[in-house]
Amino acid sequence: MKLLGAVLLAAGLLGTAARGEQPPWPDEPSRTCFFQMLTSVDSEFCRGDLEIIYPELGDVGCTYIPKCHQYRRRISREWGSPRVRYPQAEKSKKYVLVLVDPDAPSRANPRNRFWRHWLVTDIPGADLRTGAIKGHVLTDYVRPTPPPRSGYHRYQLRLYEQPAHEAVALSPEERVSLGAWAMESFVERFQLGSPVASTQFLTKYYED
Q1: What is the pTM of this model?
Q2: Contact indicator for 19, 34 with CB cutoff of 8 Å
Q3: What is the pLDDT of residue 18?
């Protein structure tokens, strides 16, 4: 993996991070914490400068969440919904935001694909440009919680332009469960088309 820029020195600099290889001592807070960028097929999903921003970590788009400083535990147990920013959003348009895990319960056996973690419609473009999104929440934010020993899970954020005057809603059947959601059918039903931007991060159970 390649190193990107300077590194985070843990003493007093937990709010800023650099990306590169994870060190052999990820759990020692007195050490440097490195981040790892996605490669190959996983990195190709990241398109359009869509930012997903968590406390201390900043934009985690196209990265692995490191174990150091208990970041994996905190993203699964502590932190609420991230800020989502899309600087190219058009102020006059509205957008639909979808966060899913396609690897439930594991990437090797994704029988519950797609697990819905967040669904928001009617997001004004002006809000997306600042990262303070407001809209109609169809599914409340659910923290990433990969099961033990299930390996890395992809958490994929897709942003769609919402057709004008289109009321987007989940069906009664879709509201029953978060898992095994037919996301493609949902996108087709409301003619959302392809995402205008997308990004993802990978994480796994925090004790693995």
Answers
A1: 0.85
A2: yes
A3: 42
